[in-house]
Design goal:
By secondary structure, the chain is mostly helical. Helices cover about 75% and strands about 0% of the residues. The protein contains 18 helices and no strands. Helix 14 packs across helix 15. The longest helix has about 35 residues. It is globular, with a radius of gyration of 22 Å. The termini are far apart. The relative contact order is 0.16. The C terminus is likely disordered.
């Protein structure tokens, strides 16, 4: 990378830090801005399309995002909405993978079902970082924000074995064992690390937690378990046992993950987006649009039947399933494992993520505010209802 490219990225990061609040009022999100920065990099500089380290940076970013998001979720909240998580992860997610696979095989004209399964699985998980505007929006009910956060934190780990099977072209290993192994290893590392850091000094605690998240991921991968599930489980365990210092230490991880994610989106804009003009097709565009709407929203709606959510909530949860870092990781894995034979699959993944960055970025703020106001109005009685309730409680004059 040239000095000019480094200067542009550094200037963009600094400018975002200064102007992010004002830009977000215009419904411009960090992924949108930095994908544009990446495209500008590709236009101004000779960017190596096979740049080393992008895969490692993307995986590390996803690990830190999963760890920090999970550390904010309390065990009580997990138990309280266990049924909802079971519906979204045990029913909606598999239905999304199946629907995405069948649609890809039929619409994209793929030669066999394995690339179709790769596309369907790679585009099934949602992205907590890309959906951070909604997850952090104060007007959205805390329960809905928590549901979206946990779903996006776990679903990429669940589909990782499916992606691996698709890449191998045949079932290999034991996906369920990988998930359980990742959860056990991650929880153990997170709990032990959180307990040890309670007795340590604060001068280097933040970087230590940063390393702890990577340790959970790498330790799980070393024994062929699921590293992304391990990172999420480690965050859950760490948040439970870290004590008062935990939030401050996790804030360091969040800040680092935030910076790393900006670099990943810039790399996505510089390396992946310029390949689209020569590779996209109308069937790919149609698939991307259906993947972000019907393929996601219908399984969510089916899974939440009987869960006593209003239609507006079901639509809100269904729409805010942005595709981001996990899908990029899976696309990079496909390039690494399959080479040029994965071009169609990678192109449709890149196109879908790009549309998601724009569509979910522009709609996050307005829809979150609108939904939050509607949800609050439904929970709080109006003036007439409040007066009747007051009269009923006081009794007749």
């Amino acid at each position: 990378m040239t000095a000019g490219a480094v200067m542009l990225i550094a200037l963009a990061v600094f400018a975002w830090g200064v102007a992010s609040r004002r830009l977000e009022r215009l419904d411009l999100t960090a992924p949108m801005v930095f994908v544009a920065v990446g495209v500008l990099l590709a236009v101004l500089f000779d960017v190596d399309q096979h740049a080393e380290g992008i895969m490692a940076l993307t995986e590390a970013t996803l690990v830190w995002v999963l760890f920090s998001d999970a550390s904010r979720v309390g065990p009580r909240e997990l138990r309280g909405d266990a049924g909802v998580y079971g519906r979204l992860l045990g029913l909606a997610l598999p239905l999304t993978v199946i629907a995405g696979t069948l649609l890809a095989w039929w619409l994209l004209g793929l030669p066999n079902p394995w690339p179709a399964l790769l596309v369907g699985a790679a585009l099934a998980p949602t992205d907590a970082a890309l959906g951070s505007v909604v997850i952090a929006h104060p007007k959205v009910p805390a329960r809905i924000r928590r549901i979206l956060n946990v779903e996006s934190g776990v679903n990429d780990g669940i589909v990782t074995p499916v992606v691996m099977v698709a890449l191998a072209g045949a079932a290999s290993g034991a996906p369920l064992l990988q998930l359980v192994g990742g959860a056990v290893i991650g929880a153990a590392i997170g709990a032990v690390g959180g307990r040890l850091l309670r007795t340590a000094g604060e001068s280097f605690a933040g970087p230590a937690v940063l390393a702890l998240a990577l340790l959970a991921y790498a330790g799980s991968i070393a024994v062929h378990a699921n590293g992304f599930v391990a990172a999420f489980a480690a965050g859950l365990a760490f948040g439970h046992v870290a004590g008062r210092g935990g939030p401050r230490e996790v804030f360091y991880v969040e800040q680092t993950a935030g910076l790393a994610s900006l670099l990943v989106w810039a790399a996505f804009g510089a390396l992946a987006v310029p390949l689209l003009p020569s590779r996209w097709t109308w069937p790919m565009l149609l698939y991307a649009l259906l993947s972000l709407t019907a393929v996601r929203m219908l399984p969510v709606a089916l899974s939440l039947i009987g869960a006593r959510f209003k239609a507006s909530t079901v639509l809100f949860v269904g729409w805010f399933g942005p595709r981001g870092l996990a899908s990029i990781v899976f696309a990079l894995l496909a390039v690494e494992e399959l080479g040029p034979s994965a071009d169609t699959a990678v192109a449709v993944i890149v196109l879908t993520v790009l549309i998601s960055v724009v569509a979910h970025g522009l709609s996050a703020g307005p829809l979150a505010a609108r939904y939050g106001q509607a949800a609050r109005a439904e929970q709080e009685p109006g003036p007439v209802a409040a007066a009747r309730l007051h009269t009923h409680r006081l009794g007749p004059p």
